[in-house]
Amino acid sequence: MDLAQRRELARRALDGYDSGPDATTRALAGAQAKIDGAAALVLVEGLSDQIALETAAAGRDRDLEAERVVIVPIGGAHAIGRFLTELGPLITQVRLSGLCDVREEEIFRRALVTTRVGSPRTRADLAALGFEVCVDDLEQELIRAVGPTRVEALFDSQGDLGSFRSLQSQPAWRGQDTERQMWRFLRAGSRRNLRYARLLTEAAMSRDALPRPLAALIDRTA
């Protein structure tokens, strides 16, 4: 596969989304413009989470815009407290939910307590409030759901298998668990991370294996 073909595949995977250093900032601004008219807000850490959730919703024939469901990439877990504070009275006027990685679970929990959204003590308490936790993160959830063999096939279909093999041969990653190598490969570049958020979510849905945190949030916004 030549470079032009790979670029075209990457363009298709990111169709409808920005990419680049300020992609999340622009995505946040776009979501904020819709907040006043929203019936439900789903707060996620970044753009890859937004892409995965919107892909999953589309795969279930949901029209989030028509349903006034807004997925908000807040720009990192540490922004959750400030964002909830800025929502003010809107907190009680919309259905609120969210998604975070396991290492940011405590940050989300404290913010929800501080802003009086609830008083969660456990992961089950967070889920009861509508906040789901990825273990360890979204990429790992999706890799497990799709399975290493199918993830490799997906890399191959996008012209990325050679690059992945190069990573596997690096001294720091040689001999490590394949899923861990795949995780590192996806995290190696923001554009790769974003386009595979869509591709892996689609692959998981084709197997009826959407990761539980994503499935739970899609169900909650219905």
Going across the biggest sheet, name each strand in turn.
2-1-3-4
Distance between the termini: 41 Å
- Described by the principal axes of the CA atoms, the overall outline is globular
Q: Give the total of beta strands.
A: 4
Indicate the radius of gyration in whole angstroms: 18 Å
Major sheet attributes: 4 strands, parallel
Q: State the helical fraction.
A: 55-70%
Order of helices and strands: HHEHEHEHHEHHHHHH
Tell me the number of helical segments per DSSP (H or I, 4 or more residues long): 12
Q: Give the low-confidence spans.
A: none
SS-based structural class?
alpha/beta
Strand content: 5-15%
Mean pLDDT: 93
What does this structure look like?
This protein has 222 residues and is an alpha/beta fold. 55% of the residues lie in helices and 9% in strands. The protein is built from 12 helices and 4 strands; from the N terminus they run ααβαβαβααβαααααα. Strands 2-1-3-4 form a 4-stranded parallel sheet. The longest helix has 17 residues, at 190-206. It is globular. The mean pLDDT is 93.
Helices and strands in order:
Elements: H1 3-13, H2 23-32, E1 40-44, H3 47-59, E2 69-73, H4 80-87, E3 95-101, H5 105-114, H6 123-129, E4 131-134, H7 138-146, H8 148-157, H9 161-169, H10 178-187, H11 190-206, H12 212-220
Parallel strand pairs: 1-2, 1-3, 3-4
